[in-house]
Design goal:
This protein has 320 residues and is an alpha/beta fold. It folds into 2 domains: 203 residues, P-loop containing nucleotide triphosphate hydrolases (Rossmann fold, 3-Layer(aba) Sandwich); 100 residues, Orthogonal Bundle (Helicase, Ruva Protein, domain 3), CATH 1.10.8. The protein has 13 helices and 11 strands. The strands form 4 sheets. The chain has a 5-stranded parallel β-sheet with strand order 2-5-8-1-9. It has a two-stranded antiparallel sheet with strand order 3-4. A two-stranded antiparallel sheet has the order 6-7. Helix 2 crosses helix 10 and helix 11 packs antiparallel against helix 13. The radius of gyration is 21 Å and the shape is globular.
Length: 320
């Protein structure tokens, strides 16, 4: 119990420190922390100017970890991301030159602006935690997180992420506009320009302890059954979806069940509980599932998005 309380204090300290620079956006901050504690990658989607990059930079300052940022552009090459072999004139040999992917926290800014061959260069790094340069594979640092951003309103000159890569992201977070009060606070802060460094509140040893705390959170068999039935409902096996799956062409893979299980544990830790309740699963379900289901033509014709369909599933699958 003492470990759980200590973990909650560390998480709250990180939230408070980031909030010194970022106004509002509590859901985005909690989503980023969830990914770090659960060991998954995050995709942030929102219109420009909503502090996505600023929040990720602030998170990297609060955590004692190395940080690299890559601005994805149409002319980017895979070698710009993972590295390449260069010729050493002194030795007459080719030696590896490591790219910015060799870091703890990698910000892939506007990932959908780079072509598919660059996007796919992240696949091995994200899934296998290693990078191959020449004939040799190199292990990436631990922890390793990819925090990618994309702009949903621009279509020209962009390359939508394929489903195979989307599935590598544990969570897809929608970044919303600030409330009027929050926007007024932003104006007040901008009106008095100030530069300050954020204090590091989570160190490498703390990340290990926080993950141990997450692993110690218990999940009842009935909650596990609820998670599985929720994911299976996206595939309409034995009519679990109860009609909602007519809006889905392709359902979520078992990876969704694994990530729901992990993230629900983290959500329970945020609340200081050593056990998961159905509300924890419901809180993380939209972020885990929205990018893992492919909507049908019927959903498009009724102007339904993936969040609408996930809400239907949450309302139809019985809660234990």
């Amino acid at each position: 119990m003492q470990q759980l309380e200590r973990s909650r204090e560390l998480i709250q300290a990180a939230r408070d420190e980031i909030s010194r620079r970022v106004v509002g956006q509590r859901e985005m901050i909690d989503g980023l922390l969830t990914g770090i504690l659960a060991g998954g990658h995050i995709l942030l989607e929102g219109v420009p100017g909503l502090a996505k990059t600023l929040t990720v930079r602030s998170l990297a300052e609060v955590i004692d970890a190395s940080f690299q940022r890559i601005q994805f552009t149409p002319d980017l090459l895979p070698a710009d991301l993972v590295g390449t072999m260069i010729y050493n004139q002194q030795t007459g040999e080719f030696v590896p030159r490591r790219g910015p992917v060799f870091t703890n926290i990698l910000l892939a800014d506007e990932i959908n602006r780079a072509p598919a061959k660059v996007q796919s260069a992240l696949l091995e790094a994200m899934e296998e935690r290693q990078v191959t340069i020449g004939d040799t594979s190199y292990e990436l640092a631990e922890p390793f997180f990819v925090l990618a951003t994309q702009n949903p309103i621009e279509q020209e000159g962009t390359y939508p992420l394929p489903e195979a890569q989307l599935d590598r992201f544990m969570l897809k977070l929608y970044v919303e506009y600030p409330t009027p009060d929050e926007e007024q606070e932003i104006l007040r802060r901008i009106g008095v320009p100030q530069e300050f460094d954020l204090n590091k509140t989570i160190f490498q040893a703390d990340i290990k302890k926080l993950r141990e705390s997450v692993d110690s959170v218990t999940v009842d068999e009935r909650i596990e059954d609820y998670i599985v039935r929720l994911v299976v409902a996206t595939r309409d096996v034995e009519n679990e979806g109860m009609g909602a799956t007519r809006y889905i062409d392709f359902g979520a893979s078992p990876r969704a069940s694994i990530f729901l299980h992990r993230c629900a544990r983290v959500r329970a830790l945020f609340e200081g509980r050593g056990y998961v309740i159905p509300e924890d699963v419901k809180r993380v379900a939209p972020d885990v599932l929205r990018h893992r289901i492919v909507l049908s033509y019927e959903a498009d014709s009724e102007e339904l998005d993936s969040d609408d369909v996930v809400t239907m599933l949450l309302s139809t699958v019985p809660v234990p």
